[in-house]
Specification:
Blueprint: H1 5-35, H2 39-59, E1 69-75, H3 82-90, E2 97-104, H4 110-118, E3 124-129, H5 134-144, E4 150-153, H6 164-175, E5 179-188, E6 191-194, E7 206-209, E8 226-229, H7 230-235, H8 249-258, E9 262-273, H9 277-285, H10 288-310, H11 316-330, H12 343-356, H13 362-367, H14 373-379, H15 384-393
Parallel strand pairs: 1-2, 1-4, 2-3, 5-9
Antiparallel strand pairs: 4-8, 5-6, 5-8, 7-9
Helix pairs in contact: 2-3, 8-10, 10-11, 10-12
Length: about 400
C-alpha cells in the first residue's frame, strides 16, 4: 500500500519521538537511580571517598604561619550528610584552616556527629545556639572567626573539592582582591553537573575585575563558592538577613558592588548537593512567603543597583542585565504555580513583578530567554483567571 510523503514524515517523527523518549527515560534512570542513589554511590563513598578524605587529612601538614582560612558551617538536622561535609572540609590541602560548625538547635544526631569528629580534629570548633535559621547561624560563625584572615561559607550537606581552599587562596594572595568566586558543581551521589545558569562565567580565570566588567555575575548570588577577605567583610559590616528564605541574594550582590575588585576561578571549588529537592522545592515555591522573600531580595537588589548608578559607580547596563535575569529566571521559577495558589500569591507576583520592571527598557524583554517567558509576560498584564486559563492552554516547553 502506497503512503503519501506527509504520512511517511509523520510516521518517521513518531518513531523519532518514541526512541528519544526511551533514551530520556534511560538517562533519567541512569542518573537518578544508578548514579544518584542506592548501592553504587554508597560503595563509592564508603570504599573510595571517605578513605581518600581521611588519608588526605592525616597527610596534611598544618602551617600556622600562612593566612588563616575559617570555614563557617551552619548545621541543622543533617545527620545523613554532615559527616562527609566535615571530612571534605578538614581534608583541604591548604595548611591553615579552621572549621566553625554552628549547631543551629539541631534535633537529630547532627551534634553527636560533630562532637565525634571534634574529638580527633583540632581544627573543628563547635558552637551551639537556639535555632534561628541559616542567616543567623552564619552571622554567629563570622563573629566567632575572630583571628581569621579569610572566611568562606559551607552548607552542612555539601562537600569541597580537596584543593578548593588552596586554589582560591593562591589567587587571592596573588591579586590582593577582596574575594574570589569559584565554579560550583551540583551533585547527587556520583552524578555531577555544572550549573547551567552560571557556567559561562567560569570559562577562564580572571583577576581584579569589578561588576562593571561582567554584569552577568549578578546571576551568581550564593555565598558558598566564595572566599572573602575578613577585613573586607568586617569593614563593610556585612550581615546575612534573618528570617527570610533567600538570605544570600542581596548580601552577595552588595559584596560585588562594594569590592574594590574580585577574582574568578575557573576550577570547581564547591559541590552543591541535590537532596531529593524536586518535590520539596516545588512545594516551597508554591508558598506565598517563599515568593515574597524572593521578590523582597530582588527589590533590594534593584534599589542597590539604582543607588550605585546614581553615584556613578556602575552603569545602567548592570541594572539592565539584572532586570533581564529577573524576567529570564526569577519570575519564571514561580509563574506556573499560579493555578495551584491563591489570589495573594498572584497579586504579589503581578503587582510587585510589574513594579520591579516598571522602568525596564525594551532591551530587557528583547534579550530575555526561557521557556516560560510568554507566560510571565501574560501574567503581568492579565488577571488571575485569565492567566490560569492561559497556562492551561499551553503545550510544549512553556507548560
Amino acid at each position: 500500500m502506497k503512503i503519501s510523503k506527509a504520512e511517511l514524515i509523520l510516521r518517521l517523527k513518531k518513531i523519532y519521538w518514541f526512541f528519544l523518549n526511551k533514551f530520556r527515560r534511560a538517562r533519567r534512570f541512569w542518573r537518578g537511580v544508578i548514579l544518584g542513589q542506592g548501592l553504587l554511590p554508597g560503595i563509592w563513598y564508603e570504599l573510595v571517598m571517605r578513605p581518600f578524605w581521611f588519608i588526605a587529612y592525616k597527610r596534611r601538614k598544618p602551617n600556622p604561619l600562612l593566612p588563616k582560612v575559617t570555614i563557617i558551617m551552619p548545621v541543622y538536622n543533617v545527620e545523613d550528610f554532615v559527616a562527609d561535609s566535615i571530612r571534605s572540609a578538614r581534608a583541604q590541602s591548604y595548611p591553615n584552616i579552621e572549621i566553625i560548625a554552628v549547631n543551629d538547635g539541631a534535633t537529630d544526631g547532627s551534634l553527636a556527629i560533630l562532637e565525634r569528629f571534634a574529638a580527633t580534629t583540632p581544627e573543628l570548633k563547635i558552637h551551639s545556639k537556639k535555632n534561628n535559621g541559616l542567616g543567623a547561624a552564619r552571622n554567629t560563625g563570622v563573629s566567632l572567626a575572630k583571628d581569621a584572615d579569610y572566611i568562606m561559607f559551607m552548607d552542612s550537606d555539601d562537600t569541597l573539592p580537596r584543593r578548593a581552599v588552596e586554589q582560591m587562596m593562591n589567587m587571592a594572595l596573588e591579586s590582593g582582591s577582596d574575594f574570589v568566586v569559584g565554579r560550583t558543581m551540583r551533585f547527587e551521589g556520583l552524578y555531577k553537573y555544572e550549573r547551567r545558569d552560571t557556567a559561562p562565567f567560569f570559562r577562564i580565570d580572571r583577576q581584579a575585575i569589578t561588576i562593571r566588567d561582567n554584569a552577568y555575575l549578578l546571576g551568581d548570588v550564593i555565598s558558598c563558592n566564595k572566599l572573602f577577605r575578613k577585613r573586607f567583610w568586617d569593614r563593610m559590616k556585612f550581615e546575612f538577613p534573618v528570617g527570610v528564605v533567600y538570605e544570600d541574594m542581596t548580601l552577595i550582590v552588595n559584596t560585588y558592588l562594594s569590592a574594590r575588585h574580585f577574582d574568578l576561578l575557573a576550577k570547581p571549588v564547591y559541590n552543591w548537593r541535590l537532596r531529593g529537592e524536586g518535590q520539596s522545592l516545588s512545594k516551597r515555591r508554591a508558598e506565598t512567603k517563599n515568593l515574597q522573600d524572593r521578590l523582597l531580595s530582588m527589590e533590594q537588589i534593584v534599589a542597590l543597583l539604582k543607588e550605585h548608578i546614581a553615584t556613578g559607580r556602575i552603569g545602567q547596563e548592570v541594572l539592565t542585565q539584572y532586570l533581564t535575569r529577573i524576567v529570564s529566571l526569577d519570575l519564571q521559577l514561580f509563574v506556573n504555580y499560579i493555578p495551584m495558589t491563591d489570589d495573594e500569591f498572584f497579586a504579589a507576583f503581578k503587582w510587585r513583578g510589574r513594579a520591579l520592571l516598571a522602568d525596564a527598557p525594551d532591551e530587557v524583554w528583547a534579550k530575555a530567554t526561557g521557556g516560560k517567558l510568554e507566560t510571565v509576560r501574560y501574567a503581568l498584564s492579565h488577571d488571575r483567571s485569565e492567566t490560569v486559563a492561559f497556562i492551561a492552554s499551553l503545550t510544549g516547553p512553556s507548560k
